[in-house]
Design brief:
With about 100 residues, the protein is an alpha+beta fold. It has one domain: GIY-YIG endonuclease (3-Layer(aba) Sandwich), CATH 3.40.1440. The chain is about 45% helix and about 20% strand. It has 5 helices and 3 strands; from the N terminus they run E-E-H-H-E-H-H-H. A 3-stranded antiparallel β-sheet has the order 2-1-3, with helices on both faces. Strand 1 and strand 2 form a beta hairpin. The model has no long low-confidence stretch (mean pLDDT about 95).
């Protein structure tokens, strides 16, 4: 089964957030970290992986991504702080 990831990147603790979905989390975050992705994350230097979820269903992943994007900022921060209170860059735990 293939895994899909819903992820949140941050520019810094309590900084600008970006929510995305991918089927290869390590590659996707690597691309963000190395500024290979044009747009919002590159412009605002958003490259810290602070939260992610896994699912085997792409439709569920897309629905969850859209849901999180609609949340207000305080809910997103609370979600991050529940599983990653120190705002560690989780990318380095994956590689």
């Amino acid at each position: 089964m293939k895994n899909y990831y819903i992820y949140i990147l941050a520019s810094e603790r309590n900084g600008t957030l970006y929510i995305g979905v991918t089927n290869d989390l390590i590659r996707r975050v690597y691309n963000h970290k190395n500024k290979l992705v044009e747009g919002f994350t590159k412009k605002y230097n958003i490259d810290m992986l602070v939260y992610y979820e896994t699912t085997e269903n792409i439709e569920a992943a897309i629905i969850r991504e859209k849901q999180l994007k609609k949340w207000n900022r305080s809910w997103k921060l609370e979600l991050i702080e529940k599983s990653n209170p120190d705002w560690k860059d989780l990318y380095f735990e994956l590689i």
